[in-house]
Amino acid sequence: MKNFSHKTCRRNSGFSLVEALSALVIGTMILVAILGIYRRAERSAAAITRRLDESRLAGEVLQLIAEDIDRTVTLGSDVQITAESKMDARGYSIGRLTILRTIYDKKNKKETFEKVVWQSSYDYYGDTDSLILYRSHTGMGSEDKLLDEGREDWEQSYSFIPICSGVTFFRVQVPLKDDLLDRWTRTSMPPGIIVTISFAEPFKTVEGTLDVLDEQKSTRTMTPDRTKKVEFTIAKAQDKIGKLSSLLSEKRRSEEQAAEEKTAEDEKDQKVEEEQDKDDTTPQDRKKDSDQGLIRGYTMEELNNMTFEELWEIFRDEFE
Length: 320
Hints:
Low-confidence stretches: 230-238
Order of helices and strands: HHEEEEHHEEEEEEEEHHHH
Radius of gyration: 47 Å
Strand content: 25-35%
Largest sheet: 6 strands, antiparallel
Distance between the termini: 126 Å
Number of helices: 8
Structural class: alpha+beta
Number of strands: 12
Oligomer: single chain
Helix content: 40-55%
Mean pLDDT: 77
Strand order of the largest sheet: 5-4-3-2-1-8
């Protein structure tokens, strides 16, 4: 039976301190890399989810505003729409849209039947530096009787209800020809209403105000008066016939002119080819002509009747 020394057994019994530290450092590096990848993936997923939620929320808000306009602005009703947009003291773009519908009672007295207000203001009690969007509905009829009956006495005088928070851009404009008006207080109906909202992170402009990138804004154009008359004219039948006749005559003249130009070009090309055929006679052709008593394809009688210029054109190559 072989005897092993105590020193050899102790050396093979486990890992050394250097090996254990190396394994710990490598494991820590792998764990840190995995946690970093997981954190970046989590932030990316949160950003994508937030972007989707912001886009969905903006679309829902714009749809609610459009529904208020479509429901309030009806045929035969007396409706006035006012809009105003400006910059607040902190540089945020805020707006206010008012839809007022009035009726006349038995005494022919004008009364407010329904009033809807959409406006944004700074969120003083929120966790983030942003705006909050409110909606107010007042008038003779209530939208939700159960909600109105459950209000406290102090709530009866305050009709604004918060719709959403975290708004960083809210603007209401009225298009007029080539301009966008930030203020509309006329009694007439505006030609359109452009509402823009965003929940994205704002940046500071050169003027010191806050703005959002255009691709991060949600905009919707609404038409309050869909029954507006569109002016149009119907052309008379005689005018149509005369215009068609003039167009056909002009087309016919252009076709005839093109045909004449093509014929002139063909005749010119044919003359050039005939002259080249006269000048390109080979010695074999000349010998053949001499055997037949011809010179360059012409008889002596024909040559005698020619002028000097015609003879020069025939025999010019022999003198060059």
